[in-house]
Design goal:
Blueprint (H helix, E strand, L loop, with lengths): L13 H30 L7 H23 L9 H31 L7 H34 L1
Protein name: DUF3278 domain-containing protein
Keywords: Membrane, Transmembrane, Transmembrane helix
Length: 155
């Protein structure tokens, strides 16, 4: 593995490591373009902006870019090549997402029972449902893309 401080973020697989580094580089270039655009916009006062909100938006935008590119690349489930393996992994994704939802809902309910929540129970449960849905969708999309990519490689 390369001698770099970023290696803790990278997988051991060389192909995945190189591809993720490309995604990080693309995100950095897009971030540079966004910074230059924001400098121009702020210089001429087209749109009033709060600096903290802009920085947080850029941080999450960069993370989202790398995350979405990785999901859509189809390299997460490299071993899924048959329909049977695809169905088995799809069931595992459903089980993992459901388990996550149950654990989160139970945690939030217990926080509510002990009075440790400052928001209504329904809001906490909605956040749990959204998080479980995002977990399911990202894994399912990645699985589907990986399966079709692997099928194309076989054919």
């Amino acid at each position: 593995m390369e001698k770099t401080w970023i290696r803790f973020l990278l997988p051991d697989d060389e192909y995945k490591r190189r591809t993720i580094l490309v995604y990080f580089a693309e995100a950095a270039i897009l971030q540079l373009i966004a910074v230059l655009t924001l400098i121009v916009i702020s210089r001429f006062d087209f749109i009033p902006m709060d600096g903290v909100i802009v920085l947080i938006g850029m941080l999450f935008g960069t993370i989202a870019y790398v995350w979405i590119r990785y999901i859509l690349s189809g390299m997460e489930f490299a071993e899924i090549m048959t329909a049977k393996a695809y169905r088995r992994e799809r069931k595992l994704i459903i089980i993992k997402s459901t388990s996550f939802l149950v654990i989160m809902c139970a945690s939030i309910a217990s926080f509510d029972v002990f009075g440790m929540m400052s928001v209504p129970l329904i809001e906490g449960l909605i956040v749990s449902f959204i998080a479980a849905l995002l977990l399911f969708l990202t894994n399912y999309v990645s699985l589907k893309r990986s399966y079709w990519k692997n099928r194309e490689l076989i054919d």
